[in-house]
Amino acid sequence: MTPLAPAILALAAGAGPECILVRDREPAASVRAESPSAAVGFAASELRRYVKAMSGADLHGSGGACAVTIALDPSLGWDAFTIEVTEGAARVTGGTDRGALYGAYQILEDLGCRFLAPGPEGENVPQARTLSLRAGSRRHQPALRYRGLIVQEPLSERNLLMADWMAKNRMNYWVNPWWSFEKADAGLRQRFVDALEDRGILWEFGHHTFEHWIGKGPRDETVLGLIAGRRSAAGICVSNPKAVEKVAENMSSFTARWPQTDVLSLWPSDDFRVWCECEGCRALYGKLPESRWHGPLMSRPYAWFLGRVAERLSGLGVTQPISLLAYNATLEPAEGSSFPDNVLVAVAPIGRDYTRPLASLEYFGPIMDRWNGLLGGRSPKGKAGARVMAYEYYAGMYAQNSLPFPTVTALSDDIARHQETGFGGITTQAEEGHWGTYGLNLYAQARMSYHGREDPATLIAGFCRDYYGPAAAPMTAYWTRQEDLIRSQAHVPPAGQFFHVLRNTPREIEKLDGLVAQAEALADTDTVKGRVHLTRLSIDYVKLLRDAMDAAVAQSLEALPPTPKGKGHLPAMSHGDFVQLRFPVPREGDLEVSFGNIVPETGAGMWHVLEARRDAKDGAIIHTGKIASGSAEEAARHSPGRAWAAGNRKPVNITPHLTAADRQRGWVDLFVTARVIGDRWTLYRDHDDGGPWDIKVHAGRGAIAPESTTAWLRLKAFVERHSRAGIFNKAPDYVLTACRKMMVEAR
To answer: For the chain, how big is the Rg over CA atoms in Å?
Structure first.
């Protein structure tokens, strides 16, 4: 806790009757919990703890002229609270035990405390000889029912600090991956669960859990998904009654060991190719519509399976609900689906554009409305079903990259829409180790999820005033400029913090760097210097990564005729046909060719693989892509397949296959085909029909800066110094691997 100047206490003082808590550093009040709830008792202890930190006075006694009571009244509603202060008493009443805790934190904020980031270094705790509360009454209630984080990192002591910050900022929902919890030591797991219970935070266990729930303990292999010809724990044989029983038993066993669990995830693997292809499952699937993503829309069989598990859990006496993930091939709800009452839905708008509000998105907005209507909500101004929440990416998709992704404006617009439509809430993928980059986003989400929409400029200015103190002006300009930059771009998806940085010119980065330098000069305490330093690390990382990218990205040259050009798909070709590509060859240096997003698609069979030969159709094979698996259901329908191999997008280094004659002539021919089990195939450039063909060749030093270059060595040293602290939360090799990947993507 960070002491600040007593001037802040003007927030708590005023004319008229008061409830005096502390007079001349002596206790003048008592604090009592009226309910046996853990969170209500914790609320009383927190109020005492912070008052003592502010004034030195201990309010544990029963005497004093002012009696402070913390109580419950469920009629107030979900997470609502009231504060009533008279000359001789103060009463905090919560509609839930969390609501009572929120009321205690509101009193501390009235006294000048601020809870801006996890841990003592993120808090403002003023010092005073006298503390008092103004007489009056008020009521607070949440804008959204569920307000949480999806914490994608190994369970650690820092998670306990994050849970503490969440409660102080009225967040009530924690999702963690099964591996995060199961792989932690027993003592840490218990402290984590206790921390959530003390604060009344709802705990959803699992995340992507198909593999976890089906794979634990002895098993019949037939419960595993038949994927690409073999049984795999990555999927579940959803048509097999034994699989329903296996999953339900493992869930029931977990809740018996950890009854503190509030929700259980039953989410497919992050890979969309996880659906069983056995005859029983194909019969269950029937004829499926195509999804916008890869392969058929699997929402109906997924909902069917999840419903059977939910029913079985009820039969086993498990009271915790389970959650469905609407994502990729299950993003769109299937017509006619229905769900038991013990099912929640998390809708993950993967690929959405964060430069625009959700209400203006022609695809994702209506999808969220459909889910909301399906589970009890309805169109704008309707009554909330409160069983659907958004799985958002306001802190980016790949937080290990720790690149700026300013989304306060998008958050403000989205929360206003969610309030209007009666949406259940928001959870955001996040990692505590990246507060210097994403802290403002997470603070904005927490604040507006409870208090409702705020003007982004006002929110940013208030945060910077409280967090950066005398350095507020340049830091406000820094974060405001970041917001302006991202909103000036055409499209920024969840993984787009990387592309957002690439599109920022060196001049813009210099301006941002200059604002941070101004803030460093104005910071007057170690606390404020430390807070500014986190942003310094963030902008330094941006500069170092840009330098390394500039050193890595080679000269880009257009492919030559007869390489196909134009719009849309190439015509469908029969199995074994070739397309000729011609690439320029530099006189010296490495040569990496990019096939754009060439994908042998629409093959009616079960798999296909891209193959490139040089000089002729029967020339030497110089590249073989990864196998792209379709599904048996697709084969049965003989309709265009959607399976593809992402590896075909990556540059291929063909330098070892070049000859002196190629260098002298200045070009090389490659003949590309697909080996397919099926009757036809085509070349497909991108997910959006009508995109231009733009096959390029990259010549120069390659897609990844050689590790001997000065730029890479500087970046490597920075990452190694700050991994697991500061702005990263991963091992150095993990972060550097992400950097290499970004350099490839930079092409």
So the answer is: 29
Those residues whose C-beta lies under 8 Å from the C-beta of residue 577, and which sit 6 or more positions away, are 673
Q: Which of 417, 285, 294, 420 is nearest to 350 (CA)?
A: 294
Strands 29-33 and 81-85: unpaired
Average pLDDT of the chain, as a whole number: 83
Q: Which of 140, 170, 201 delimits the end of a domain?
A: 140
Nearest-angstrom CA–CA distance, 542 and 704: 17
pTM above threshold 0.90: no
Output the pLDDT for position 288: 84
708, pLDDT greater than 60: no
Report residue 457 CA to chain centroid gap.
24
Give the integer Cα–Cα distance in Å for 409 and 186.
Answer: 41
Question: Please, how many CA atoms are within 13 Å of residue 534, restricted to the half-sphere of its CB?
Answer: 26
Q: How many domains does the chain have?
A: 3
Which residue segment(s) compose the domain that 233 sits in? 146-468+484-490
Calpha distance 486→497 (Å, rounded): 9
| Dihedral sign (CA 32, 37, 41, 46) | negative
pLDDT level of residue 745 (50, 70, 90 thresholds):
low
Which CATH number does the domain housing residue 236 bear? Answer: 3.20.20.80
Do 282 and 424 share a structural domain?
yes
DSSP lists the bridge partners of residue 225 as 232
- List phi, psi (to 5°) of 514: -65, -35
Q: Using an 8 Å Cβ cutoff, are 589 and 701 in contact?
A: yes
Question: Higher model confidence: residue 585 or residue 504?
Answer: 585
Residue 698's beta-bridge partner residues? 556, 592
Is the domain of 18 the same as that of 115? yes
Looking at the domain assignment, is residue 612 inside a domain?
yes
438: nearest Cα among 448, 426, 425, 429:
429
How many CA atoms lie within 13 Å of 582's alpha carbon, on the beta-carbon side? 10
What is the Cα–Cα distance from 506 to 483, expressed in whole angstroms? 17
In a domain, 351, yes or no: yes
Over range 352-374, report the average pLDDT: 87
Indicate if 158 and 230 belong to the same structural domain: yes
Which domain-ending residue is among 140, 158, 182? 140
Q: Is residue 478 part of a domain?
A: no
Tell me what pLDDT residue 56 has.
95
* 333 lies in the same domain as 403: yes
- Say whether both 91 and 221 belong to one domain: no
**Same domain assignment for residues 209 and 243:** yes
473 phi, psi to nearest 5 deg: -60, -55
Render pLDDT for 552-574 as a digit per residue (tens, 0 to 9): 665 556 778 888 765 555 666 66
Of 372, 321, 482, which is closest to residue 144 (Cα–Cα)? Answer: 372
Alpha-carbon distance of 275 to 34, in angstroms, equals 52
Residue 498 lies in a domain: no
